[in-house]
Amino acid sequence: MNVPWAEIWRLTLEHLWLVLVSTGIAVAIALPAGIWISRNAKARPWVVGITNVVQTIPSLAVLGFLIPIAVIGGVGKRSAIVALVLYALLPVLKNTLAGIQSVDAAVRDSAVALGMTDRQVLFEIELPLAARTILAGIHVATVANIGTATVAAAIGAGGLGVLIFRGISTVNTDLILAGAIPAALLSLGADRILAWLETRFWQSPSSSRSGLV
Amino acid sequence: MIRFEDVHFQIGDTRILDGVSFEVTPGETLVLLGRSGSGKTTALKMVNAMRAPTAGRVVVDGRASIDWDPVKLRRSIGYVIQDVGLFPHRSVAENVGTVPRLLGWDAGRVRARVDALLEEVSLAPGEYRHRYPESLSGGQRQRVGVARALAAEPRILLFDEPFGALDPITRREMQDLFVALRKKYRVTSLFVTHDVSEALLLGSQIGLLRGGRLQFQGTAEAFAKAEDSEARRFMESLPRIPGGAGGGRPGVEGAN
Fold it and tell me: Residue B246: its pLDDT value, please?
C-alpha cells in the first residue's frame, strides 16, 4: 500500500494545532476561574457543577449542538475548538482549585502575617506550591483532547480524524491506522513532555513519599 | 506599644472576646494565658490586623490596628506560630529573608542580615542557609521561624503557642533562646500559651483569659499568689514531683 505520508503529516499538524489552541484557551479560562473560586466559596459549587455537567455531554453531541449556533459554532474548526475547550475546562479548573486548597493553612497564614499582599501570596506562595497539581490537570486535559479531537473531523474541522472517518466509510483498516497511530504517538509524546515538566516544580514531601510506595 | 480598649469579638451569637482591656508597654513581654477557646489567638491576630474587633479597638503605636495599612503594619510585626508555616519551596535563607526582601532591601544587606540571624538562633549559616524546611527537625524549623520573625527588626513580636509542638527538652532550649533574645532586643511582645509553666518563665506580665474575659493581669509572682479561681486551677495543674521537691504548690486543695 502506498502510504499518504504528506497528508498524514499535514493532518497531524492540524490535529496538534486544534489541541494546542483549545487547551491554551481552556487554561486561559480555567486557571483564573480556579483561582477565583478558591477565594469565593459561594461561587465554587456553581462553577464546578456547570463544568461537570459540560463534561458529561458526549463529544459528538456537543459538536452537533454547535453546528447551528452562530459566532461560536458552525461547521469547521471553530466548533471543534469550542467543544475541545469545554472538555479541557474541568480538569484544569478542578486541579487549580485542589492545588491552591492543598497549600498548608499555616503557610498561607504566615505569608499574610509577614506582610505579603494578596497578589504576592498568590504568585509567590500559592501558585508555586500548586503548580505541579495544576500542570497535572493540564496534562490530563491535553492527552484527553488529543483523543477527542479525532471526532472533530465529523464536522469538517480536519485533523487525524479525517483519515479515521474515511477509513471507516471505505472499510479500510490501513486508513484507520494511518489516523490512529499518529494520534496515539501524539498522546504519548504529550504525556512524556508534560510528565517531565511536572517534575520541574515543587512537590510536597508527603506526596512524593506516597508516590514511591 | 499595644493597647486593647474594651475589645469585643463575636461570630454570630458566640462571644470570643468580651470586653478585653490591657496594655503592653514598650519592651515588655505580656503572656496571654488561657485554655483552648479562651480567645487568646483571636486577640493576638487583632494586633496585626488579621482579625478586626467587632467593638472596641486595639491600638498599636498610637493608631487603631485596623486604621494602619495592613501590609505595612504586618511587615513591622514579627509573627511566630506553632505550625511555623515556613515556605516549603524556599530555602532557609529565602524564608528568613522574606520581610527584608518585601521591604526592598538590596541582596547583599539581606544576605548579611540572614547570616547574622541564623547565628543568633544557633544555626550555622554555612550549613543551613541552603537547606529546605523538609530537611529540618521541628526545633530547627522553629529556630528558622523565630529568625524570620526578627528579620526586619520588628517593633512588635507576636507568638502563638510557638513551642507547643516541640519535645520538652527542645521546648526548654527554645524558651531559653527566647529569654536571651528578649534581653538583647527588648522588643514589645505578646505571647500566647496554654502552658502555665511557660507563662511563668517568659512573661514579665501575665494576662489570664477565660471565656473571652481578662480575669487577671500582673507579674508572674502576683499570678502565683492570685485569688482568681482560674489562676488557681492553672497553678494547681503544675506538675508536682513525688517527695515534695517540685516546683508546684503542694497543699492546695484539688480542683474539680
Answer: 47
SS3 of residue A89 by DSSP: helix
**A110 vs B: CB within 8 A:** yes
Residue A27 grid cell? 487554561
Cβ contact B60:B68 at 8 Å: yes
Per residue in B224-243, pLDDT (tens digit) is 999 999 999 999 999 888 76
CA distances from A58 to B43, B140, B170 (A): 54, 54, 60
What's the one-letter identity of residue A6? A
- Give residues with Cβ within 8 angstroms of A113, minimum separation 6: B48, B50, B74, B77, B79, B81, B158
- Whether B148 contacts chain A with CB within 8 A: yes
Put simply, the answer to whether B89 touches A128 (Cβ < 8 Å) is yes
Its pTM stands at: 0.86
B177, pLDDT greater than 90? yes
Determine contact, residues B29/B207, Cβ cutoff 8 Å. no
C-alpha distances in Å from residue B3, one per residue of B22, B57, B58: 6, 8, 6
The ipTM, to two decimals, is 0.87
CA distances, B170 to each of A11, B140, B162, B191 (Å)? 66, 9, 12, 18
Name the residue with cell 459549587. A45
- Alpha helices, DSSP H only, in A103-154? 105-113, 118-120, 127-148
Q: Distance between CA A193 and CA A191 in Å, rounded? A: 6
- Does A114 sit within 8 Å of B102, measured CB to CB? yes
pLDDT in tens, A58-113: 888 888 888 888 777 778 888 899 999 999 999 999 999 999 999 999 999 999 99
Instruction: Let me know: does A35 contact A100? Beta carbons within 8 Å.
Output: yes
